[in-house]
Amino acid sequence: MEIGKILKDVPAPLQSKCVAIETASNYSACLVSQTEDTLDRKSLLCLTIGVGRLHDPPDCLGLAELLAGMVAMQTDSTIGLTGSVRVADDRTEFSYKITSSDSVSKVLKQLIKSITTPEFSANRIKYLIKKEKYKQQLSSLNWLQRCSGNSNHPYNRMVQPSQRTVELFQIEELCDRLAEFHKRHFNSNCRRRMALEDGRSTDELVSLTAATKFDFSTPTDSRVRSKGQHPLEGSYTALGGTKIRGKRMNLGGIFIVFPLPDQTDLHKKSPDLLVKYLFGRDGLGSLKEYLRTKLGVQLDSASLTDTGCIDFDTFCIALHCDETTKYTVETEDLIISAVFRYLAMIRSQAQHFEQLHNEVRLDRRAHFLPEVDDWSAFLKLKRLPLVNDEFNIATRLHRYEIADVLSARHLLSSYSAEEMNGFLACLTVDQCRVFVSDLDWHTEHVCLFSSPDGRLCCQPDGIAPYNLEKLSENLLALCRAEWPTASCQIDTVFTWPRPRPFVCKNFSLKPRDLTNQPNGPRKIKRQSTLDGSSSSTNLWFRQDDRFQTELAYISVDLLPPVDVVRLALASSLQISILANLFSEELADLKMQAVEADLELSVSRSCNGIQVCCSGHSEPLPALLLAALGRIAELRVPLNYFNQERIGNLRAQKFSLQPCSDLSQIANRLDLAGFLHIQRDYQSLDTQTLDREVEINPSSFIAHHFSNPAHATPLERENWPSRPELYAEILALGNLTAEQVISLVDSITAVLPPLSRRPADTFRLDPFFMRCSERLLPRGSHHFIRLNFATNRSIELTSRTTRLKKGDAALTKSVCGLLLQMPTAISGGLKKQASKYDDFFFRRFWHNCCLWLLKEALTLCTKLPDCTKRDLRWDTVIGCNANCIVIELVSESHPVAIETTIELVIACVGKTVDSITKEQLAGMKSRVQQLATRLFTAPNLNRQHELYWRHITCGDYDFSWDTHSLDTNVKTILDRISKKDLYNYWKKWLKQGSQDRRVLSVHKINRQQFTFNAQDDYYATYQGIEVRSLDDFKQNLQDCIPMQTASLKDTFNS
Q: What are phi and psi of 940, to 5 degrees?
């Protein structure tokens, strides 16, 4: 098939790409390539033909259904799959879910072959007639609308009596009629549209489609035309403002229907969605809440109905009464009056329409661009790719241009008052038809309409199908009245919904300042002020040049002076309590952010409190400033930091795994490799390590963060020092440099403690703002004893349970080993590789060696199964040091458990010494995949996480942020030989090595091992016990970060 036009960069949902193709033969396709590896790899195919029930000849109804059934049977029997087929008024839909992408071409070619050259088999026709495959059951509302409408309208011809259907014909004659019908409609130039979603690239999908051949005869236009007239309007139809009551009929609800002109061309404005949104909202002041609580009526929906593409549209408000509600004419009138008073309220709030449009536009974009977690439910057959939409994919293929099939009614443009007012003008009582059930015919049975014979299942012969009841003058007057009307009690009930702040109004991409940006974010040097000072902020900025989304991330790390943080546990606990307090105080602001599809979070960082916001770039600065303003004005007295709050902060769930203890102890000691982990302060269950902490005026630090302008002179006198604050700021995404510089000025104004100092005496670098990281002594082995009682709750496999007598965990103890490796030291690095001996190479040499050692553990064959099952081996990649954390749970004493762990470490060394070239190559391949996964950002969120981690821990190294990362890592791995890896193990992990740095944590079960027994275990144990974390910390060596000249230049810029 010759492709006439390819439309690239068609708007598509996240994690997918889309192209549209058009041909001269009235054939178009929307091709969606899914790009997320974790998705269900099934391919989805939907092909539609512009021929439906309304194309049936009057003397042989059901031909379209019968022919579609034959095509489906012929296709299914050939390809071995069962698809679905549906015939609507103006089209026929064929849909398939294909488990293997390789089968897509076969399915498509066979389906098209069946459509163009069907086999009119007598046996198949007999089968379809016998199984009544040519029939459909439609709603009684559908039937009643057609009966009461314009009989000359093509849409209403299906309910006209005395018409012949296919079952009245002989098989031979039916074969002739089918062939004639196929030649006239299926094999003509009718509209053919296809949607295909597959895991292959868009280029491959275009090639697949181009290889598919269509054979068409003389072009004809077979589309149904109504000349813009609505089937409910015209002569001999029910007038507006009328109830249409089905005789002896249960519709299952009350339906208020408004005829509309064709809304297809309004898909970028879609004013009906605003009305739908207002009718769908619940809560105080809403129509939904009033009907449910006062009248016992459920408001099901208020939306356009899917009537295909026949030059008209219909807006329907559907309601039904609860079983406890007595159904009467008075009930109907109360419902009708409530609906039209609500519409009157809507019309009176024109000043809020633009804000409402922005909120609806945001919600529709969220449906079109869902989170990845929702993606598996997003691309569903016949709902591709839209959730909760009025039109399925088949209707969309016929209603909209092929390039708009996915985005129509979801990617809305700016507000149009003209379109909104025009739509509301159609929703008046004088134009509506109210379809209601017979008052004496309320049973559990809901009537159905059978196609193609046009009969209702329970309609007696010779009885008129409905009665017309004109609405009373009083009811009409009430429905027409302006809002509010003093005499109408309902008007006091309805209120306009609360506007959502921070709703994005502009989704456009900002001009790109840099086409080739350096690795990572760049530090922006801000101009000094007139008085020669500069603010206490580091500003990092990078535009989104990879993902091209309208999203942005702005994060602020608020840091008190480093000498304050050095006050150790007292200051750290205050910072943690303040972070919790700020998060609680901003709860309503966080909820408002969620309503605007944004995210706001406040949490503890390595050395301070971080405030992060993300989402659409336009409202982010206002959200961030609002959050920081709240923090700045919060008054925090000294007595807020009482022992109860400190106890609540430290009383975390007790865990049988020591990982939480190790990370906590490492953070308390400022160990290099752990400072990038968020600090926590759970109880360590030992008085010798956890001394009573007292917050006194000399250690009070809240004034550094919250410095209210209305603070009293006495409060200011009690502050131990002048309020002082520093900030790291990262702005990433759809922003400009001018924007973020202006934002920093606003942040400085909102937070007065971001003081200004003389520029020549002030330098912001990681050594000035943060605690120094520390190293364990070279060749040392220290250990910590933690005793726990088994009458507490213990967390096992991510669930918390109360230990009972007889539980296996009652007899368990734990040992964890932390081994530290400074990255500034060359751990087995080849001398001949010195030309690669830069910051990136040295760091990733350490990383790759650690990952390879963990891979070697999986090859150890001499370990007991129970040890392999219960052993946990984690690598912690830090800034100035890496760590290995090994932990094991057992019924043995922790000293014996540690002996087992040492045997595991020795086994890893033996395995490395004996691995084959093939095994080493497999290990390297897996490590390369791991490194790429850890340091490559598949989306803007992950990119922000990587940048922010390297900023908040004072690392500032972004050499890994390059398109050549995979090649660079491969170069490093290629230079690591088996001998290099063994030497690395020997230097850093082997027991007795002079370079090994070890900290052990023994968690002893008091019930299993008494204190006397413990003395026996430690009598010959080789290790120095740590009895005070603070004293031990004072004796640790400060870690001098490894820097290149370029990094030093960055700090001094």
A: -65, -30
